[in-house]
Structures are given as C-alpha cells and as structure tokens.
Write a structure and sequence with these properties.
The chain has 111 residues and is of the alpha+beta class. 11% of the residues lie in helices and 26% in strands. A hairpin with a 5-residue loop joins strand 5 and strand 6. The longest helix is centred in the C-terminal third of the chain and has 12 residues.
Length: 111
C-alpha cells in the first residue's frame, strides 16, 4: 500500500500577492509587484505574513531592516519585527534606495 500526502490543505510557502501600499514609516506610496515586501525608499517592512504573501500574521508590527549581507553576488536584508522579534530575509531589489542599504552596512561596521 502506498501512502500519498494530501497537499490541498497545506499552506503554500510563497503566494504572489500584488498590492500597493503606503509605507507606515515614511509615507511613501509603493506600487507592489507581487514580490514587494518592504518600502523601497526607507526599507522598512510590516509583519503581515507567516509565509511570504499569505497575509496570515496577526502581529502587524513594523519591521526594521537591521542588517545586510552579500550572498552569491546579491545583497540580502534582514528585517526585525519591533513588536514580536520575528525576522525575515529578503534580497535587495533594483528599486530599493541603495543609500539606505549602505547606511545599514555602515551602522553594522560601527558597532
């Protein structure tokens, strides 16, 4: 007898969710692409997902970009929720304000 897993009730690990939003940190009006999870101007995010795009997190806390690392030729941000401590990583997108990325890396170097 072969046992098969029923995947119909399992949550997706990623859901494309195209949404525009106004950044709650800096007020920037952001046009979402379905992969947008943070403000491209100030790099702040909001804790709204359990898995990317699912909008299932009840927290709703603001998430500060606290670090940036270079991995496989791409910069990756780590966001930290100021309300519950949850952290999520997301690569820096071409639309992102690279001056803010540099500020984050300088703040880490000065610790």
């Amino acid at each position: 007898m072969v046992h098969t897993q029923n995947y119909t009730n399992m949550p997706k690990l990623f859901q494309k969710n195209v949404e525009d939003f106004t950044c709650e940190k800096c007020g920037e009006k952001v046009v979402g692409s379905g992969y947008t999870n943070h403000c491209p101007k100030c790099l702040w995010s909001k804790h709204v997902d359990i898995n990317p795009g699912d909008r299932a997190a009840a927290c709703g806390g603001m998430m500060k970009a606290i670090s940036v690392v270079l991995e496989k030729g791409e910069y990756v941000l780590t966001h930290h929720c100021e309300k519950c401590g949850f952290e999520r990583r997301k690569k820096v997108e071409k639309e992102d304000n690279f001056d803010e990325v540099v500020k984050i890396s300088k703040n880490l170097a000065n610790r």
